[in-house]
C-alpha cells in the first residue's frame, strides 16, 4: 500500500454558512465542492493548498460540542482530548508567512495565540526565541466551532536522531 498524503480531513460544524465565511474569507481557502446529503445534512470541501482539502459535515441534529472531550478546551493550558478525538488540525505554511498570518487573524478578530510558538525538545516543549533546536514554528487559533487550528512551518530536516522515545502503552495510563 502506498498513500500520497491526506486527501481530506472531515470535521463537523454547527453553522455551515458561518464555516464557509470563516474558511473562505478569513483563511482564504476556496470552497470547491458542496454536497447535499440524503438525510438533509451537508458536506462541503475547501482547498487548503498543496492538493489537500478540509471538509465539513453539517447536520441539524448533530450533538453539541464537547470541549475537553472531543476538542481542545483551551490551548496550550488544557489541550488534552479523548481517545479517538481530533486534537487539532495543522496547515503547512512557509516560515516567512507566520507573522502575516498573526496580523490577518488579529484583523479578522479571530482568537489566537498572539505569538509564534517555537517548538523544541526542551522540557516545556517550546522556546521564546528561535534557535537551532527549533523544529517547527506555529500559530494557534480557533475556528467558529472552537476547532483548534494551527499554521505550522517546519524549520529543519528530520533524521534518525529525531526518533528517540519509546512509545507509551495503555498499561502506562494512570487509570489503567
Describe the overall structure.
It comes from Erythrobacter litoralis. This is Glyoxalase. With 176 residues, this protein is of the alpha+beta class. It folds into two domains: 1-61, 2,3-Dihydroxybiphenyl 1,2-Dioxygenase, domain 1 (Roll), CATH 3.10.180; 71-159, Signal recognition particle alu RNA binding heterodimer, srp9/1, CATH 3.30.720.110. The protein has two helices and nine strands, in the order E-H-E-E-E-E-H-E-E-E-E. It has helices spanning 16-26, 98-107; strands at 8-12, 31-36, 42-49, 52-58, 89-92, 117-119, 126-127, 136-142, 148-154. The chain has a five-stranded mixed sheet, covered by helices on one side. The chain has a four-stranded mixed sheet with strand order 1-4-3-2, with helices on one face. The protein is globular, with a radius of gyration of 18 Å.
Which helices and strands, and how do they pair?
Elements: E1 8-12, H1 16-26, E2 31-36, E3 42-49, E4 52-58, E5 89-92, H2 98-107, E6 117-119, E7 126-127, E8 136-142, E9 148-154
Characteristic key phrases:
alpha+beta, 2,3-Dihydroxybiphenyl 1,2-Dioxygenase, domain 1, Signal recognition particle alu RNA binding heterodimer, srp9/1, 2 domains, 9 strands, 12% helix, VOC_core, Glyas_Bleomycin-R_OHBP_Dase, Glyoxalase, Glyas_Fos-R_dOase_dom
